[in-house]
Amino acid sequence: MVAVPSIRPQVVNRMATAVVAGFVATVGMTLCFFAAYGVALILGKLPFVSYQGGANLTAWFAALADNAVIDVARSNLAASLVLHFGAGIVFAVVYLMLVERRLFGVGWQRGVMFALVPWALSLIVFFPLVGAGMFGMAIGAGPLPIIGNLVLHVVYGAVLGEMCRPSFQDSLEEDGELCDADERAERRSFGTLAAGIVVGGIVGTAGGYAVAATGTGGDMLLRLGLSSWFMVAAGLFAGASWGGLLGSLFGLNVKPAAPARAASELMPKPGPG
Asked: pLDDT value at position 2?
């Protein structure tokens, strides 16, 4: 009777890879956003006005730094961060499970091609929902919302594509240098790393929001010149980082179950003669 290998471990491994890659790619996208936001704040105060009836770039950058999307995120920061990272992980799962093998090119090229889908969805679905208008034109920043959003999604897609090239479980299978026990331990560690990122991120976000909402925490942030978003963001990053670390260590320390013995090993061996 021919044994059919179970696909469940492969699916779990790919899901774990997608969670970790989606989280890291979203972190890269978020850091890029904060950098671009700081640049927009600076350029929004410089005199970039065209003298021949052209676009007022100063007004565009000022509008890019202060608009309906920023207002919605600022007033609902905890929910915005959870949705932001949740969407990043969900898109990563879709990419690795359904799309990656159907694309062409090296890893980052595949990721960037896939990232054009969430980019388009943000322009025609998300922006109108938060009052920014189709393609963000109601913001009053000209084409900057389209360009800036594209840059953020290119960063996300490039990081995602590289982390999924090749997928983690395929690299283990093709490597050939790890023994079965080491391979199972590394895969188990990667799975608990993914679970730790998700659980730790949720707990850290809730903890940061709770600290910022207390009178003492709010007063401390005000004295430092920070808003509540800082504590929530710090809680998310710290919780996800520590959760991933502890999850990875836990996965390495868990003893695997003893492998099932083959039927031929259970049958009595024939005696001599």
From this structure: 45
b vs e for 146-161, b when ≥16 Cβ sit within 10 Å of the residue's Cβ? Answer: bebbbebbbbbbbbbb
Cα angle for residues 121, 30, 89 (degrees, 5° grid): 60
The Cα angle at residue 237 between residues 231 and 241, in degrees rounded to 5 = 140
Residue 121 · residue 111 · CB < 8 Å: no
pTM of the predicted structure, to 2 decimals: 0.67
What string of H, E and C letters represents the secondary structure of the chain?
CCCCCCCHHHHHHHHHHHHHHHHHHHHHHHHHHHHHHHHHHHHCCCCCECCCCCCEHHHHHHHHHCCHHHHHHHHCHHHHHHHHHHHHHHHHHHHHHHHHHHCCCCHHHHHHHHHHHHHHHHHHHHHHHCCCCHHHHHHCCCCHHHHHHHHHHHHHHHHHHHHCCCCHHHHHHHHCCCCHHHHHHHHHHHHHHHHHHHHHHHHHHHHHHHHHHCHHHHHHHHHCCCCHHHHHHHHHHHHHHHHHHHHHHHHHHCCCCCCCCCHHHHCCCCCCC
Confidence of residue 260 (pLDDT cuts 50, 70, 90): very low
The domain segmentation of the chain, as residue ranges, is 10-167, 179-255
User: Which token pair is 236?
Assistant: 């998310």
